[in-house]
Amino acid sequence: MRWLRHPAVYWAVSIALGALFIYASHEKIEAPRAFAKAVYHFRLAGPSAAVGFLPPNLLAVILPWLEQQGQTAGFARLR
Amino acid sequence: MGARADGLRLWRMATIVSLAALLGLAWNAWSGRGMTLRANALIKPGEKLKEIPAAEAKRLLDQGALFLDARPQSIYEMGHIPGALPLPLEDFSTAFTRLEPTLRQRFDIVVYCAGYGCDASHELVRALRDKGVAAVILAEGWPAWQDAGYATATGAKP
Description:
Chain A has helices at about 5-30, 30-40, 55-75. With about 80 residues, chain A is mainly alpha-helical.
Protein backbone atom coordinates (compact mmCIF):
# COMPACT_ATOMS: atom_id res chain seq x y z
CA MET A 1 0.00 0.00 0.00
CA ARG A 2 3.05 2.29 -0.06
CA TRP A 3 2.19 3.26 -3.62
CA LEU A 4 -0.80 5.17 -2.20
CA ARG A 5 1.67 7.66 -0.72
CA HIS A 6 3.40 8.26 -4.04
CA PRO A 7 3.25 11.96 -5.05
CA ALA A 8 1.85 11.04 -8.46
CA VAL A 9 -1.17 9.36 -6.84
CA TYR A 10 -1.67 12.38 -4.62
CA TRP A 11 -1.56 14.63 -7.67
CA ALA A 12 -3.87 12.45 -9.75
CA VAL A 13 -6.49 12.10 -7.02
CA SER A 14 -6.33 15.81 -6.18
CA ILE A 15 -6.74 16.85 -9.79
CA ALA A 16 -9.54 14.33 -10.45
CA LEU A 17 -11.51 15.40 -7.38
CA GLY A 18 -10.88 19.07 -8.12
CA ALA A 19 -12.04 18.67 -11.69
CA LEU A 20 -15.17 16.90 -10.48
CA PHE A 21 -15.99 19.76 -8.10
CA ILE A 22 -15.34 22.36 -10.78
CA TYR A 23 -17.60 20.46 -13.19
CA ALA A 24 -20.32 20.31 -10.49
CA SER A 25 -19.99 24.03 -9.76
CA HIS A 26 -20.23 24.81 -13.50
CA GLU A 27 -23.68 23.18 -13.67
CA LYS A 28 -24.89 25.30 -10.75
CA ILE A 29 -23.43 28.49 -12.21
CA GLU A 30 -25.17 27.84 -15.54
CA ALA A 31 -28.58 27.28 -13.90
CA PRO A 32 -28.78 29.36 -10.69
CA ARG A 33 -32.58 29.11 -10.42
CA ALA A 34 -32.43 25.32 -10.42
CA PHE A 35 -29.71 25.37 -7.75
CA ALA A 36 -31.73 27.88 -5.71
CA LYS A 37 -34.56 25.32 -5.54
CA ALA A 38 -32.12 22.82 -4.03
CA VAL A 39 -30.94 25.45 -1.53
CA TYR A 40 -34.56 26.12 -0.53
CA HIS A 41 -34.98 22.41 0.12
CA PHE A 42 -32.11 22.33 2.62
CA ARG A 43 -33.51 25.32 4.54
CA LEU A 44 -30.02 26.57 5.32
CA ALA A 45 -31.04 30.21 5.11
CA GLY A 46 -34.74 30.27 4.36
CA PRO A 47 -36.77 31.18 2.50
CA SER A 48 -39.14 32.20 5.24
CA ALA A 49 -41.55 35.00 6.02
CA ALA A 50 -38.88 36.58 8.23
CA VAL A 51 -35.90 36.63 5.85
CA GLY A 52 -37.61 36.36 2.46
CA PHE A 53 -35.80 34.91 -0.56
CA LEU A 54 -32.61 37.00 -0.50
CA PRO A 55 -30.40 34.82 1.78
CA PRO A 56 -31.01 31.48 0.00
CA ASN A 57 -30.76 33.15 -3.42
CA LEU A 58 -27.43 34.76 -2.44
CA LEU A 59 -26.18 31.36 -1.31
CA ALA A 60 -27.27 29.85 -4.63
CA VAL A 61 -25.42 32.53 -6.58
CA ILE A 62 -22.20 32.59 -4.52
CA LEU A 63 -21.68 28.98 -3.34
CA PRO A 64 -20.82 27.49 -6.76
CA TRP A 65 -18.20 30.21 -7.30
CA LEU A 66 -16.80 29.57 -3.84
CA GLU A 67 -16.57 25.90 -4.74
CA GLN A 68 -14.73 26.80 -7.93
CA GLN A 69 -12.43 29.34 -6.29
CA GLY A 70 -11.58 26.90 -3.52
CA GLN A 71 -10.64 24.22 -6.02
CA THR A 72 -8.59 26.62 -8.12
CA ALA A 73 -6.73 27.76 -5.02
CA GLY A 74 -6.21 24.09 -4.14
CA PHE A 75 -4.69 23.42 -7.57
CA ALA A 76 -2.38 26.40 -7.12
CA ARG A 77 -1.05 24.88 -3.90
CA LEU A 78 -0.23 21.47 -5.43
CA ARG A 79 3.49 20.81 -5.37
CA MET B 1 5.85 32.55 13.10
CA GLY B 2 2.69 30.51 13.83
CA ALA B 3 0.56 33.61 14.25
CA ARG B 4 1.87 34.98 10.96
CA ALA B 5 1.02 31.73 9.17
CA ASP B 6 -2.48 31.77 10.69
CA GLY B 7 -2.96 35.37 9.61
CA LEU B 8 -1.85 34.53 6.09
CA ARG B 9 -4.22 31.57 5.96
CA LEU B 10 -7.10 33.72 7.18
CA TRP B 11 -6.24 36.41 4.64
CA ARG B 12 -6.16 33.79 1.87
CA MET B 13 -9.56 32.42 2.90
CA ALA B 14 -11.08 35.89 3.05
CA THR B 15 -9.72 36.61 -0.42
CA ILE B 16 -11.21 33.40 -1.85
CA VAL B 17 -14.62 34.07 -0.25
CA SER B 18 -14.64 37.74 -1.38
CA LEU B 19 -13.59 36.83 -4.90
CA ALA B 20 -16.28 34.13 -5.08
CA ALA B 21 -18.92 36.61 -3.86
CA LEU B 22 -17.80 39.23 -6.38
CA LEU B 23 -17.70 36.77 -9.27
CA GLY B 24 -21.04 35.25 -8.31
CA LEU B 25 -22.80 38.61 -8.08
CA ALA B 26 -21.17 39.89 -11.27
CA TRP B 27 -22.10 36.74 -13.18
CA ASN B 28 -25.65 36.96 -11.84
CA ALA B 29 -25.95 40.58 -12.93
CA TRP B 30 -24.38 40.43 -16.37
CA SER B 31 -24.36 36.88 -17.73
CA GLY B 32 -27.98 36.90 -18.83
CA ARG B 33 -28.54 33.66 -16.89
CA GLY B 34 -28.90 35.32 -13.50
CA MET B 35 -31.89 35.47 -11.21
CA THR B 36 -33.63 38.23 -9.29
CA LEU B 37 -32.13 37.93 -5.84
CA ARG B 38 -35.23 38.94 -3.93
CA ALA B 39 -37.64 36.86 -6.03
CA ASN B 40 -38.89 33.32 -5.57
CA ALA B 41 -36.83 31.02 -7.84
CA LEU B 42 -39.82 28.71 -8.19
CA ILE B 43 -41.62 31.37 -10.22
CA LYS B 44 -40.23 32.03 -13.69
CA PRO B 45 -39.36 35.66 -14.53
CA GLY B 46 -42.43 37.52 -15.74
CA GLU B 47 -44.76 34.67 -14.81
CA LYS B 48 -47.98 35.58 -13.04
CA LEU B 49 -48.33 32.97 -10.30
CA LYS B 50 -49.84 34.10 -7.03
CA GLU B 51 -48.63 32.75 -3.69
CA ILE B 52 -50.61 33.35 -0.51
CA PRO B 53 -49.48 32.91 3.12
CA ALA B 54 -50.93 30.24 5.39
CA ALA B 55 -53.14 32.74 7.25
CA GLU B 56 -54.84 33.84 4.04
CA ALA B 57 -55.21 30.23 2.93
CA LYS B 58 -56.91 29.44 6.24
CA ARG B 59 -59.30 32.35 5.73
CA LEU B 60 -60.12 31.06 2.23
CA LEU B 61 -60.64 27.54 3.58
CA ASP B 62 -63.07 28.89 6.16
CA GLN B 63 -64.92 30.65 3.34
CA GLY B 64 -65.25 27.36 1.46
CA ALA B 65 -62.35 27.52 -1.00
CA LEU B 66 -61.33 24.32 -2.77
CA PHE B 67 -57.88 23.01 -1.82
CA LEU B 68 -55.85 20.71 -4.08
CA ASP B 69 -52.96 18.60 -2.82
CA ALA B 70 -50.24 18.22 -5.49
CA ARG B 71 -48.25 15.61 -3.57
CA PRO B 72 -48.38 11.86 -4.32
CA GLN B 73 -51.52 10.04 -3.09
CA SER B 74 -49.59 8.07 -0.44
CA ILE B 75 -48.24 11.31 1.09
CA TYR B 76 -51.72 12.86 0.96
CA GLU B 77 -53.07 9.97 2.99
CA MET B 78 -50.43 10.50 5.68
CA GLY B 79 -51.73 14.02 6.30
CA HIS B 80 -53.47 16.80 4.39
CA ILE B 81 -55.48 19.99 4.78
CA PRO B 82 -59.07 19.11 5.75
CA GLY B 83 -61.31 19.09 2.69
CA ALA B 84 -58.39 19.14 0.23
CA LEU B 85 -58.73 16.90 -2.82
CA PRO B 86 -55.73 14.89 -4.02
CA LEU B 87 -54.53 15.94 -7.46
CA PRO B 88 -51.03 14.44 -7.67
CA LEU B 89 -48.88 16.14 -10.27
CA GLU B 90 -47.42 12.77 -11.25
CA ASP B 91 -50.92 11.56 -12.17
CA PHE B 92 -52.26 14.84 -13.53
CA SER B 93 -54.15 13.61 -16.61
CA THR B 94 -56.19 10.96 -14.80
CA ALA B 95 -56.82 13.06 -11.69
CA PHE B 96 -57.78 16.13 -13.72
CA THR B 97 -60.29 14.16 -15.80
CA ARG B 98 -61.86 12.88 -12.58
CA LEU B 99 -62.03 16.33 -10.96
CA GLU B 100 -62.66 18.46 -14.06
CA PRO B 101 -66.43 19.03 -13.52
CA THR B 102 -65.73 20.30 -9.99
CA LEU B 103 -62.72 22.41 -10.99
CA ARG B 104 -64.57 24.09 -13.84
CA GLN B 105 -67.15 25.44 -11.38
CA ARG B 106 -64.64 26.94 -8.97
CA PHE B 107 -62.83 30.27 -8.92
CA ASP B 108 -61.36 29.87 -5.44
CA ILE B 109 -58.81 27.09 -5.81
CA VAL B 110 -55.71 26.87 -3.59
CA VAL B 111 -52.92 24.41 -4.45
CA TYR B 112 -50.21 23.20 -2.09
CA CYS B 113 -47.38 20.68 -2.03
CA ALA B 114 -44.51 19.64 0.24
CA GLY B 115 -43.08 23.11 0.82
CA TYR B 116 -39.68 24.72 0.30
CA GLY B 117 -37.93 23.55 -2.81
CA CYS B 118 -40.98 21.56 -3.90
CA ASP B 119 -42.35 23.05 -7.10
CA ALA B 120 -45.16 20.52 -7.65
CA SER B 121 -47.79 23.11 -6.68
CA HIS B 122 -46.29 25.62 -9.15
CA GLU B 123 -46.23 22.97 -11.90
CA LEU B 124 -49.80 21.97 -11.06
CA VAL B 125 -51.04 25.58 -11.25
CA ARG B 126 -49.32 25.91 -14.64
CA ALA B 127 -50.98 22.69 -15.84
CA LEU B 128 -54.37 23.87 -14.55
CA ARG B 129 -53.89 27.26 -16.21
CA ASP B 130 -53.23 25.49 -19.52
CA LYS B 131 -56.61 23.79 -19.05
CA GLY B 132 -58.29 27.12 -18.32
CA VAL B 133 -58.55 26.69 -14.54
CA ALA B 134 -57.15 29.44 -12.29
CA ALA B 135 -55.60 28.72 -8.89
CA VAL B 136 -53.32 30.27 -6.30
CA ILE B 137 -50.48 28.61 -4.37
CA LEU B 138 -50.11 28.19 -0.62
CA ALA B 139 -46.63 29.64 -0.02
CA GLU B 140 -44.31 27.16 1.68
CA GLY B 141 -47.03 24.53 1.34
CA TRP B 142 -47.84 21.81 3.84
CA PRO B 143 -45.05 22.71 6.34
CA ALA B 144 -46.37 26.30 6.56
CA TRP B 145 -49.86 24.99 7.27
CA GLN B 146 -48.55 22.65 9.96
CA ASP B 147 -46.27 25.31 11.47
CA ALA B 148 -49.27 27.65 11.78
CA GLY B 149 -50.98 24.99 13.90
CA TYR B 150 -54.05 24.68 11.69
CA ALA B 151 -56.17 21.51 11.63
CA THR B 152 -55.08 18.56 9.52
CA ALA B 153 -56.69 15.32 8.39
CA THR B 154 -55.37 11.86 7.53
CA GLY B 155 -56.53 9.03 5.29
CA ALA B 156 -57.75 8.74 1.72
CA LYS B 157 -60.87 10.82 2.28
CA PRO B 158 -60.78 14.64 2.15
